[in-house]
Structure formats: C-alpha cells, structure tokens
C-alpha cells in the first residue's frame, strides 16, 4: 500500500525534499500481521531503491492516523524475537515490493510513433521474459538471449531498446532492474 505525501508529514522525513520519498506499508508475514513493515523508497540514478525499513507490531496514534484503516496497528506490541528477525528475508521483501511498485508505474500502452508493430510486440515479449527471469532470481538478459537464440550482447541490445521505449525501468551499469 502506498502512502500519500500527507501521510509522510510528521514522520521522520522532514529533511527530504517534496516528493523525494515514497512510503509503502504491508503486513508481515501475511495480510493479518501481526507485523507492519514500512518501506521508504527513493529514485536514485533512475532506479527505485529502498532506503529504509521499519518493522513494528505496534503503532503510535500519529502512525495509525497515517495508515489507512485496514492496516492500523494496536497500541501494544508483540515481542520481536531473534527467531522473527531470522525468518525475515528482507532482500526478498524489498524485491517483491519493488516489483509491485514497478508494475503500477505508467508503462506505455501504445507503441511509439515510428516503431513497427512487429518490433513493438517483440520488445514487449523481451520485457516480459526479462521481468519473469528477474522475479525468479535468474539472469534476465541471458533468459532473453536463450529465448530468441541470440548472444548475450544481442539480447542486451534488445533489453536496452525495451528500456528506451519505457517497457522496462532504467538501470545502472551491471545492475538488473526488473
């Protein structure tokens, strides 16, 4: 669940520029909790990055006002044990939330002017294969290469073209971004 800018006011984000930080909430380990995982996101070098995490089984009144009613927390908490911390797979949680956020971004629905329909469909397929491999923890560019019978360099060019037309998010050299 995304928070609006108003939800961020009064929290520990006063020193950030307007619209610089996005805040998301989710219950852990499922929709019934008992934990609230709050993630702070910024766009850095064109990539959405998690820059902070807060895990709590309780909330202050101000926090409960910021959280929409289905996610409100009790005033008293559940102990955060070493076992709970060991169970958390923070990297997986960040990856899943980034994918959810990226799915909701505005991808182009129509092909750009000057791009052939067949090329547009191929780039859409490239993006789908890339995202699936990225989500599965595989090598996304290699997956594209295998699907189309290309070298990794050729697949990299297709992935780059898919990024250029907005079908995949921007990335930095050497870092996959689904």
What is the topology?
Layout: H1 5-8, E1 22-28, E2 35-44, E3 47-56, H2 61-66, H3 82-87, H4 90-103, H5 117-135, H6 140-148, H7 152-164
Antiparallel strand pairs: 1-2, 2-3
Helix pairs in contact: 5-6, 5-7, 6-7
In whole angstroms, the N-to-C terminal distance is: 20 Å
- Beta-strand fraction estimate: 15-25%
- Helix and strand succession? HEEEHHHHHH
Number of helices: 7
Descriptive notes:
- This protein has a three-stranded antiparallel sheet with strand order 1-2-3.
- Helix 5 packs across helix 6 and helix 6 (140-148) packs across helix 7 (152-164).
- The protein has helices at residues 5-8, 61-66, 82-87, 90-103, 117-135, 140-148, 152-164, and strands spanning 22-28, 35-44, 47-56.
- The two termini are 20 Å apart.
- It is built from seven helices and three strands; from the N terminus they run H-E-E-E-H-H-H-H-H-H.
- 17% of the residues are buried.
- A hairpin with a 2-residue loop joins strand 2 (35-44) and strand 3 (47-56).
- With 178 residues, it is of the alpha+beta class.
- The protein folds into two domains: 5-88, no CATH class; 106-178.
Key phrases:
single chain; 178 residues; alpha+beta; 2 domains; three-stranded antiparallel beta sheet; disordered N terminus
């Amino acid at each position: 669940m995304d928070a609006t800018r108003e939800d961020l006011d009064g929290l520990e984000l006063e020193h950030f520029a307007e619209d610089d930080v996005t805040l998301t909430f989710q219950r852990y380990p499922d929709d019934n909790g008992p934990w609230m995982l709050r993630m702070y996101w910024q766009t850095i070098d064109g990539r959405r990055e998690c820059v902070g995490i807060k895990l709590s089984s309780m909330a202050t009144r101000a926090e409960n006002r910021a959280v929409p009613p289905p996610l409100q927390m009790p005033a008293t908490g559940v102990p955060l044990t070493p076992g709970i911390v060991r169970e958390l797979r923070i990297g997986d949680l960040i990856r899943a939330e980034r994918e959810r956020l990226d799915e909701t971004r505005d991808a182009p629905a129509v092909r750009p002017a000057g791009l052939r329909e067949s090329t547009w469909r191929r780039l859409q397929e490239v993006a789908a294969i890339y995202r699936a491999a990225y989500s599965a923890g595989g090598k996304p560019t290699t997956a594209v290469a295998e699907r189309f019978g290309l070298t990794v360099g050729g697949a990299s060019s297709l992935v780059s073209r898919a990024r250029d037309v907005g079908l995949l998010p921007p990335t930095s050299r050497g870092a996959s971004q689904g």
